[in-house]
Amino acid sequence: MERLRCSVVQDIPRLRELWYLAFGDDGAYVDNFFDTYYKPERMLVLEEDGVVQAMTAWFDTAFVVPEEGSFRAAYLYAVATHPDCRGKGMAGRLLAWADDHFRALGIPAVTTVPAEPSLHNFFGSNGFRECFTHTEHRTQPGPGPEGEPPFALDKLTPFHYQGLRESILAGKPHIDLGEEAVAYQAGACALMPGGGLYAADTGAGVALLCAEGMEDGLLLAKEVLGEAEAVERLLAWLPRLLPAWSGIWRCPGDNLQFGMLKWLDPARAERWDWERRAYLGLAFD
To answer: Which residue blocks in the chain are alpha helix, DSSP H?
Structure first.
């Protein structure tokens, strides 16, 4: 018999098992989720004959649309099905039930970032459409300029990073993750030396940087935000300020499809301009 429900604390060992089987993430990364963000109601599960076989976590965020408002949005994360149960439609049924659950909570929008390109088709078949983009740059960072950097990278708390982020992104359609989700991101950043949430007062304005480790031991700039001159100054000095920087950084832009959106209200979905692009940025990909 199949049952759809919110998780309970006793499910955690099984949830961790599904997470590892689906994504291969190590203990420290998964520990960070369960230590910083997990609550039973923030994980939805499909149980078959008393065993959890599919799951999704969700982050309580806001989709900020200038001149229209701020809409509560559930960001789906870690959608996973046990390998032995794939191909049975379990994930689709879980997502359909999640829609009903979010409607009951008064949440009008759902977002997600497919873990790989092929999954865009899967989420598309479950009512999601392309919406969120960014631009990714790749360079060889080199040694950086000579002399002492004229500014420092200051580590920020999730509260201060989230506030500055919202100030910089004001006027652009984007996802406001909220402080708790940014705290989860900060925990992921802290898993590698040099990772963190930073601000730099460049002399041309403040630039924000989120640095997270990659499998090769280098740091990805998951998000760089600020006025163009401030960002340019930060990037010029980043090899000196963040020695493990990989030379890869992401910023607002339209070069890469990234996240998908589903409006749970059909009338709003019909009114939405699907050519309009928005910024998600700090997805936990």
So the answer is: 12-23, 27-36, 90-104, 119-125, 158-169, 179-189, 228-241, 266-271
- CB burial string 233-261: b at 16+ within 10 A, e below: bbbebbbbbbebbbbbbbbbeeeeebbbb
Per-residue pLDDT tens digits for 15-47:
999 999 999 987 999 999 999 999 999 999 999
Pairing of strands 219-225, 2-6: unpaired
Distance CA 139, CA 247 (A): 5
pLDDT digits (tens, 9 = 90+) for 96-115: 999 999 999 999 999 999 98
Q: How many CB atoms lie within 10 A of CB 216?
A: 8
Report the relative pairing of strands 196-201 and 206-213 from DSSP bridges.
antiparallel
Question: Distances from the Cα of 111 to the Cαs of 86, 187, 227, in angstroms?
Answer: 22, 22, 27
118-to-81, 147, 159 alpha-carbon distances in Å: 16, 46, 35
Phi-psi map region of 78: left, alpha, beta (phi>0 left; psi -120 to 50 alpha): left
**What does the angle CA 124 – CA 127 – CA 131 come to, to the nearest 5 degrees?**
70
